[in-house]
Amino acid sequence: MDANPAQDGDSAATFDRFARYYDDDYRHYADDVDALLALAEEASGPVLELGCGTGRLLLPLAQAGHTLTGVDISPALLAVARRKLAQAHLLDQVTLVEGDLRRLALPRRDFGFAFFTSNTLMHLTTPGAQLAALTNAARHLRPGGRLLVDLFHPDIARLIEVHGLMELADHWQTAEGAQVVKWSVRTLDLAAQLQETLFIYEETAPDGSTRRTPCPFTLRFLWRNEAELMLAAAGFEMQAVWGDFDGSPYDSQSEHLILVASKAAE
Which candidate, 148, 126, 92, 114, places its Cα nearest to that of 10? Predict the structure, then answer.
């Protein structure tokens, strides 16, 4: 870890706080699954997920027969992933690793496909940290191996619109019958390309007891040209830039900035 890791990325403790809520938060989201399954199938080799969280994507990829390694900095998120994979009898196909994406050193360096999805790369909050993670991803791919990076499209009008607002983001009932309300507050530092985000989960149990869990984190957004230059500096060659997981072209109306690249021949 850096002497001061808070300078260029959130800590494990930051993400541990999400473990209780992560799967419910993503309960309706599967937009990336089909595209990742297709890319993994084309790779015909081991797959590496960088920032695997609770295993939302490890599960369908393992069910499709792929051998996977999932890396995350949060032991709490990895514990949830391990439990889910064990329940599905898939632990023999998946290796879970707790580690920093910038300094990861896995024994195998022959992955055919690796990916950062759900803005994972943006949790590293300096250009140097993001470049280090991309360079490290390249080290673990075989020549010609593919990398997918999923970022949000930096819609400046929208970022300014939500600056400082407290928004009702979601609400749900847990399997145990608790009611959860999720609030979101975002503030923008446009010059630094940073969005400070606070999610607040207010949970009311069936017995009326309550708990309030604040989950602050920081995202550093990237522009397309900047992201492409970073990938080139990390040893990749661009293949495609999508605006969504259906492969549609990236433009100013896109919700995502998705980059697909391949590791340059050595």
Answer: 126
For the chain, the distance separating the N- and C-terminal CA atoms, rounded to the nearest angstrom, is 29
What residues contact residue 232 under an 8 Å CB cut-off, 6+ apart? Answer: 238
In the structure, what pLDDT confidence band is assigned to residue 10 with cuts at 50, 70 and 90?
A: confident
Domains, the chain, ordered by start: 5-154+221-263 (3.40.50.150), 156-219 (2.20.25.110)
pLDDT at residue 2 in the model: 34
Q: Which residues pair with 203 in a beta bridge?
A: 180, 211
What pLDDT is attached to residue 3? 33
Contacts of 148 (CB under 8 A, 6+ apart): 35, 36, 39, 113, 114, 115, 116, 117, 258, 259, 260
* DSSP codes of every residue in 187-234: EEETTTTEEEEEEEEEEE-TTS-EEEEEEEEEEE---HHHHHHHHHHT
> Is the pLDDT at 7 greater than 60, yes or no?
no
Cα–Cα distance for residue pair 242/258, rounded to 1 Å: 5
Backbone angles phi, psi at 77, to 5 degrees: -65, -40
Q: Which tokens is 217 given? A: 């984190």
217-240 per-position pLDDT tens digit: 999 999 999 999 999 999 999 999
Show the tokens assigned to 158.
């929208």
Please tell me the number of Cα atoms within 13 Å of 101 on its side-chain side.
Answer: 36
Answer yes or no: are the C-beta atoms of 198 and 214 closer than 8 Å: yes
Q: pTM here?
A: 0.94
Give kind and range of the element (H or E) at residue 128: helix 127-140
pLDDT tens-digit map of 111-165: 999 999 999 999 999 999 999 999 999 999 999 999 999 999 999 999 999 999 9
